[in-house]
Design brief:
Length: 374
């Protein structure tokens, strides 16, 4: 089945099964009514050493250079960091591929180094300063259901059984159809997600086929239904904590899944929750007040970012006020990033300034449940 029928049936099955069974907080659900098949995941650990995270080991850096390298680590692969003998350095991240990242880093470093050559110190998640061969990593792991793929994408460290938790990233509407998508070409999470990976979280990406990606009421959709199955698969794989994060429709789906206490430990919605204005030619059916009303998990951490100039969510001030009022008495931490200066539009969460300003706060609120100073 395809389209709205598939989304409706999967969603109804999940909603009924999850609401009927007792889900203990922060754990694997107790046995209850039969759930849709939860795929089995194999949790692997990166073969490469995590030397790339050791700022103090980088040779010849000044204090400013160490700060630059520390910032480099908060941005995702494909990436490269280059150093010159005369003190020049440069880096590139979130490039189309690793080769492009190296070319950009070396060219910029050569300019900073007075025209003298530079060498690459770090490539993606590995230190290559001593000419170390690239360590062979396990093949990306993925599992699939009808209309979706859950993938462990390349470019991130895999912490395996020692992971602090799993961050489940889900994109907005309009992904590449599944038959054209694969784990090594998964939609790239926003840059702040790298901070979770550095802090010991495994990153998983949920890829949805747009043919299935439809709403079946004013809040719930196939995006939300597939996210629930993926979250349960990560729980069953042994992750102690599971946090869902997403951009646009992916963020809305993460919040919608908080109607089931204990399913998620946190939800992060970037330009993904607010009073909705549909694009021209489309009918608006999303009900923000109903979404907030279904946030029934009192403990899960919640982060929501709303931007000025967002054509899909054009009332951020009103939306933020509604959200704060509805969630003010929850014991779980809530961070609302409302209309940050200089960050405009629906895609503002991908800007470097968003990661630089708010990435550490998002990590602390969700991972440490500490929002002081945010």
């Amino acid at each position: 089945m395809r389209g709205s029928a598939a989304g409706r049936i999967v969603g109804v099955l999940l909603t009924a099964a999850l609401s009927a069974c007792a889900v203990p907080p922060r754990g694997v659900p107790e046995p209850g009514p039969p759930l849709p098949a939860i795929p089995h995941l194999t949790v692997t650990e990166s073969a490469s050493a995590r030397a790339v995270l050791d700022v103090g080991a980088v040779p010849g850096l000044t204090e400013a250079g160490r700060r630059s390298y520390a910032r480099f680590l908060t941005y995702p692969a494909p990436r490269a960091f280059a150093i010159g003998a005369e003190g020049g350095l440069a880096w590139a991240a979130n490039a189309r591929d690793t080769e492009e990242a190296e070319r950009r880093a070396l060219a910029q470093c050569r300019n900073a180094n007075g025209g003298r050559p530079c060498r690459v110190y770090a490539r993606d998640q590995q230190v290559v300063w001593h000419g170390n061969p690239v360590t062979e990593e396990p093949s990306p792991v993925s599992v699939a259901g009808e209309g979706w793929v859950l993938a462990s994408p390349p470019g991130f460290l895999r912490h395996g059984r020692a992971a602090a938790g799993a961050l489940l990233w889900t994109h907005g509407r309009g992904s590449t159809p599944r038959h054209q998508e694969s784990a090594d070409r998964a939609p790239t999470p926003l840059p702040f997600v790298q901070r979770f990976n550095n802090a010991g979280w495994d990153v998983w990406v949920l890829i949805r086929d747009p043919a299935y990606d439809v709403n079946y009421d004013s809040v719930l959709s196939f995006a939300d239904a597939s996210l629930r199955v993926a979250a349960l698969a990560l729980r069953h794989a042994g992750y102690r904590r599971v946090v869902a994060a997403g951009q646009s429709a992916g963020g809305w789906a993460a919040l919608a899944a908080l109607d089931t206490p204990g399913l998620l430990d946190g939800a992060i919605a970037i330009a993904g929750a607010g009073l909705y204005q549909p694009p021209p030619g489309q009918v608006g059916t999303l009900d923000f007040a109903a979404l907030i009303d279904r946030v029934r998990d009192p403990q899960a951490a919640i982060v929501v970012a709303m931007f000025e100039g967002d054509h899909l969510l054009p009332w951020p001030e009103r939306s933020a006020a509604l959200l704060r009022e509805a969630l003010r008495d929850r014991p779980g931490p809530v961070l609302v990033i409302e209309r940050p200066a200089g960050l405009l539009g629906h895609g503002a969460g991908a800007e470097p300034a968003f990661n630089d300003r708010y990435g550490d706060c998002i990590l602390r609120v969700v991972s440490l449940r500490d929002g002081r100073g945010c």
